[in-house]
């Protein structure tokens, strides 16, 4: 995966044609720290790969289907995202390139907190997919351990593909394809890998991460409409309650004028106090 283009990232953009440029993304705070943590953990585990400590790190923090008990250790669906195979440097390299090129788009549009939550959830769903499919007897799954940030990174790519389907991505820095096409290719590759049994657990994590990323983005318009309806309903309810309150207050004040404060019931006194508090809080 390589460099992408956006109209609004080009010099001289005015909504029409403009001079094309190849731009590198500006690294955002959460993406920066994810890159640092992932690469640091990889270096440490690579240096310790032939030691019992190195083996222990992978055994304790990867997603595991060796036993049901290990599959139920929930911290693994987070920690496995920061581990990568020490036998394959391309594993961590491609994941970090994907995070570097696509992550800043979402963190800039959303917020750092929201982006980090999204990233970890996509990865976690990938971590759940493998042991669930294994323990329900999915035929292509084999027992083992799962590591890598691929589920989280592919969740980011899926979200970007829906939000910016026509953004150009250069595969290996040479072949330009729309981002939506790239996402479709990645889905197809993962489906083939899953059905063939070639890294079936990893491919299940890839597909789960992409599914969560896509659903999250597609769900947002519905969620926003629902929130607006709820907020409008709350506002209308508040207005109605205040109107009813002051109707009651007018009636109570008339009663006070005619019969004095001693004529008020406990409930009527409570309504007057509430009206007073409402006025003071404004």
Describe the structure.
- It is a single chain.
- With 282 residues, this protein is mainly alpha-helical.
- The chain has two domains: 4-226, Rhomboid-like fold, CATH 1.20.1540.10; 231-280, no CATH class.
- Helices cover 67% and strands 5% of the residues.
- The protein is built from ten helices and five strands.
- The strands form two sheets. The chain has a three-stranded antiparallel β-sheet. It has a two-stranded antiparallel sheet with strand order 2-3.
- A hairpin with a 3-residue loop joins strand 4 (168-171) and strand 5.
- Helix 1 crosses helix 2 and helix 8 (179-196) crosses helix 9 (200-259).
- It is elongated and about 90 Å long.
- The two termini are 56 Å apart.
- Residues 1-22 have low confidence and may be disordered.
Question: What are the salient characteristics of this protein?
Answer:
disordered N terminus, mainly alpha, 282 residues, 2 domains, three-stranded antiparallel sheet, single chain, Rhomboid-like fold, two-stranded antiparallel ribbon
């Amino acid at each position: 995966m390589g460099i992408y283009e956006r109209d609004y990232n080009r010099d001289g953009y005015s909504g029409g044609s403009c001079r094309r440029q190849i731009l590198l993304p500006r690294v955002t705070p959460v993406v920066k720290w994810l890159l640092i943590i992932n690469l640091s953990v990889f270096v440490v585990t690579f240096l310790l790969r032939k030691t019992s400590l190195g083996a222990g790190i992978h055994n304790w923090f990867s997603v595991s289907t060796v036993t049901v008990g290990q599959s139920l250790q929930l911290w693994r669906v987070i920690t496995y995202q920061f581990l990568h195979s020490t036998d394959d440097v391309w594993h961590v390299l491609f994941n970090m390139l994907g995070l570097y090129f696509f992550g800043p788009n979402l963190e800039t549009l959303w917020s750092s907190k929201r982006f980090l939550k999204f990233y970890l959830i996509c990865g976690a769903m990938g971590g759940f997919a493998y042991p669930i499919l294994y323990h329900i007897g999915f035929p292509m799954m084999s027992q083992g351990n799962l590591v890598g940030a691929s589920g989280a990174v592919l969740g980011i790519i899926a979200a970007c593909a829906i939000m910016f389907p026509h953004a150009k991505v250069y595969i290996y820095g040479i072949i330009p394809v729309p981002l939506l096409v790239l996402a479709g290719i990645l889905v197809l590759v993962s489906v083939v890998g899953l059905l063939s049994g070639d890294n079936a657990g990893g491919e299940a994590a890839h597909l789960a991460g992409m599914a969560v990323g896509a659903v999250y983005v597609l769900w947002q318009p519905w969620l926003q409409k629902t929130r607006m309806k709820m907020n409008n309903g709350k506002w209308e309810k508040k207005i109605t309650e205040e109107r009813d309150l002051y109707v009651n207050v007018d009636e109570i004040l008339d009663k006070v004028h005619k019969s004095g404060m001693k004529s008020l019931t406990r409930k009527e006194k409570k309504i007057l106090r509430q009206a007073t508090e409402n006025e003071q809080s404004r």
